[in-house]
Specification:
Blueprint (H helix, E strand, L loop, with lengths): L2 H16 L4 H22 L6 H4 L4 H21 L3 H17 L1
């Protein structure tokens, strides 16, 4: 199972366990997770006022925040039943970039 399929499956399981969120809840969570990812980027770039508090940058924390953002985006896709549209969009982008 590829990474995309695993993430989609995780979203399905979490939706079954906790119920489907409405789009505003998903976007609110996406904004929160994006902020947490930005915090990790700041930490990796050694910026911000709390750099001494957090210790060394942690790749696992960064990876977790990236996954959280991706899961929220997949949740939006699934809410609006856009799986085929997203796949087509990715394929179109892939073809354009790889032909260059």
């Amino acid at each position: 199972m590829d990474t995309y399929s695993k993430l989609t499956h995780i979203v399905d399981i979490l939706n079954q366990r906790f119920g489907n969120s409405n789009p505003f809840q998903i976007i609110t969570r996406l904004a929160e997770e994006t902020g947490e990812l930005a915090e990790q980027v700041n930490h990796f770039e050694n910026s911000g006022v709390k750099k001494e508090k957090h210790g060394l940058p942690d790749k696992a924390k960064m990876a977790k925040e990236i996954q959280d953002v991706m899961r929220c985006a997949i949740q939006v896709m699934k809410y609006y039943n856009l799986e085929n549209d997203v796949e087509e969009s990715i394929e179109n982008s892939y073809q354009k970039v790889c032909k260059a």
